[in-house]
Amino acid sequence: MINFNVPPVTGRELEYIAAAIESRQISGDGPFTVQCHEWFQERLPVKHALLTTSCTHALEMAALLLDIQVGDEVIMPSYTFVSTANAFALRGATIVFVDVRPDTMNIDETLVEAAITDRTKAIVVVHYAGVACEMDTMMEIADRHGLKVVEDAAQGVLLSYRGRALGTIGEFGAFSFHETKNYSMGEGGALLTNNGSAFEEAEIIREKGTDRSRFFRGQVDKYTWVAAGSSYLPSDLNAAFLLAQLEVADRVNDDRMRTWNQYHQGLEQLERKGWLERPVIPEGCVHNAHMYYIKVTDLDERSRLIKFLAAHDVMAVFHYVPLHSSAAGREFGRFHGEDRFTTRESERLLRLPLYYGMAREDCARVIELVGGFFHGELS
Length: 379
Known about the structure:
Helix content: 25-40%
Oligomer: single chain
Number of strands: 13
Number of helices: 15
Strand order of the largest sheet: 1-9-8-5-4-2-3-12
Number of domains: 2
Radius of gyration: 21 Å
Structural class: alpha/beta
Low-confidence stretches: none
C-alpha cells in the first residue's frame, strides 16, 4: 500500500522529547519552544513568533487581535479548510467568499476589491498547496482601504513570494504543524507578526489573559489576569518534536521537492495529451512541495481515478469541499460575485501521495498507474 501521507520523523524527535522530560519543563514556553521561536525569527525572518496549539488557534488569535466584532465582514476564498472561516465566524463576522484563480487555486486578487464594503475589516489569504497568493496586489488593496491582511500559511512554511517569506507579509501569519504538514508536532501551529504591540497583546491572549510571559522575563514582579484570553500554549514536548525537524528543514524540503519534481516530470506527457493538468507555480514564487495535485476532466473522472488507484493499493484523495456550499457557509457567509472556478476546479482536483521519505519507486508506481488509467492499459 502506498499511503497518501506518512507523518515526518527525522531522527532526533525522541531524543529531544526525553531531554524535555529530564528538564522537568514540559509545559508551555520551555527551552524547546524558545528555540523554535528563535528558528522562525532568524530563518524567515520575522520579528515575533509564537507557537500555538494549532493553526486554527493561531487564526483565532489573529481574529481577537484584530478585534473582529459582530457585523464585521472578512473576505477570503471559499476553497479552504473550515478553520480559516471559523476563526472569524466565532467572533460574529460575516464571511465574504471570493472566487479563486484556476491556475493556483488561490484567491483571485482581481476580485477582492469589488467585495469590500464599509463593514469589511480584514482580508484573509490562503496560500494553497505551498504556493503564494499575489501578495503585492493584495497588500496594495488592503493599504488603500485601511484593511488588515491575515495570511493563512498553514501549508506555507519555507516558501516565499518575491523573496519574502510567507506568513511575514501581512499583519499576521499562521502556520500549521499538523501531522499532514511538511514539519509536524502532531498538532500545533504558530502565529507570526512584525508588529511589536500586537505581539505583546498576543502573548497575553495566548497565556489565558495573563501577563505570565512578562513575569518570566522579569518585566513584572508578579503576573495576574489583565485581559480576556484563552490557552493557546502548546507543551514543550510538542516543541521538542518540532525542533528536531526544523533543524533539518532543508533536508526535508529537498526530499519533498525531489518527489514533487519526479511527479511533475513523469506526468508531463499526460498533460501534453490533454488528459490532465499539472500544478502551476507563478513567477516570483518559491514553493515548498507541500502537495502534488492533478486536475482531471470532472468529478466523475476523478471519482473513477480514485477508485482505480485504491484498487491498486494507492491512496489518493480529493481536497476541500467549497465552504460556501456547506450549511455553515450559507449561515455565516455569502459568496460575492460569480462562482466561475471554485466549485468546478475543486471537483477536478486530486491529490497524489507525497511525504518525507517517499521512495522513488513508489512515486514511479503512482505515475505508472495514473498513465495506465488514462491509456486504459491497466484493469
